[in-house]
Structures are given as C-alpha cells and as structure tokens.
UniProtKB/TrEMBL annotation:
<keyword id="KW-0812">Transmembrane</keyword>
<keyword id="KW-1133">Transmembrane helix</keyword>
<dbReference type="InterPro" id="IPR038213">
    <property type="entry name" value="IFI6/IFI27-like_sf"/>
</dbReference>
<comment type="similarity">
    <text>Belongs to the IFI6/IFI27 family.</text>
</comment>
<keyword id="KW-0472">Membrane</keyword>
<dbReference type="Pfam" id="PF06140">
    <property type="entry name" value="Ifi-6-16"/>
</dbReference>
<dbReference type="GO" id="GO:0016020">
    <property type="term" value="C:membrane"/>
</dbReference>
<dbReference type="InterPro" id="IPR009311">
    <property type="entry name" value="IFI6/IFI27-like"/>
</dbReference>
<protein>
    <submittedName>
        <fullName>Uncharacterized protein</fullName>
    </submittedName>
</protein>
Length: 168
C-alpha cells in the first residue's frame, strides 16, 4: 500500500501540496488574475504573474468561471465609464476650441509643429517614396494623369521631392 501511496504522491504531488493548493477560494484567486490581466504592463510580465498565481492554486472549473465573471464585470465597468468618457471628450473639445480662439498664433505654431512631425508619414502613406512613387498608390495614380510628362513646378514634383528627401 505504501508503494501505491508513493506513486500517487509522485504523480499528483504530496497530500500536503494538495491541501496547500486549496487554501485560497477561487474568487480571491480569480480576482488576482483579473487584476493582473488588466493592469499588467507586458505580455511577458502578465504571463509570469498569472503562472505564479496558478502554480499555487491550480486550475479548476470554478476558478475559470470566476475569472470569466471577473472579466465580464471589468468589461461592464468599462461600458459604464463610456458616458463619463464621452462627456470628458466633449469638454476637452470645447476647451481646445476656446484656446484656439483666444490664442490663434500659438495654435497655428502648434499645428505647424504637428504637421512637420506627421508630414513624412503622410507622404509615405500617399505613396511618395524614397525611390519615386510607390506602385499602386495615390502618388502613382496622380503621376499617371500626366501621361508620362510631369511639368516642372507642379505640386506633384514638390511632394515627390519631399518624399525622396524627408524621412523619419
């Protein structure tokens, strides 16, 4: 009988390990897992933290159900926050419009700064590439309207020159 007991302990862990696993109730463990999932910074840290929590308590059906309920509650809480977030967005828009009216010069400088930062990306998205227009892009279609001859000083040539010289 002791041999069978030893084999079972080897396969399942000792009876002390089994009783130790069930120290915390599933809702408490599930709460820790849901908190880790929501507040975790990286996939690796979430994976490590969840594995540590699970290694102590082990997976059970009740734990899985408690985790699903916790995630459902978290999603519902986020849905409940949608209205206040929407109100905050409206207030932010009003504040930004008021600032723009009160400080037009500063707003123009900010807009030009944002444009200068985003312009290389916009040019690339439009198809003005480093080696010329990118096949199948807006720039390629625009160039095809010139039927092989792009006149000097055309807006197309200006954008293409920027696309060839101005990179991230």
């Amino acid at each position: 009988m002791a041999i069978i007991q030893s084999i079972l302990e080897c396969l399942l862990g000792s009876s002390a390990d089994i009783s130790e696993r069930n120290v915390r109730p599933s809702p408490s463990v599930a709460s820790d897992i849901v908190t880790t999932l929501i507040t975790g910074e990286t996939i690796e840290s979430i994976h490590k933290d969840v594995n540590e929590i699970i290694s102590i308590s082990g997976w059970t059906d009740s734990l899985a159900q408690a985790i699903l309920r916790g995630l459902d509650d978290a999603i519902q809480a986020g849905a409940d926050m949608a209205r206040p977030a929407s109100d905050a967005l409206v207030k932010a828009k009003e504040a930004a419009a008021g600032f723009a009216e009160e400080h037009p010069v500063f707003t123009t400088l900010l807009a030009l700064g944002v444009l200068a930062i985003l312009l290389p990306w916009v040019l690339e998205v439009l198809g003005f590439g480093e080696l010329g227009p990118i096949a199948g892009s807006f720039a390629a279609r625009w160039q095809s309207t010139y039927a092989g001859y792009v006149p000097r000083g055309a807006l197309f040539t200006y954008f293409q020159r920027l696309g060839m010289k101005w990179h991230w």
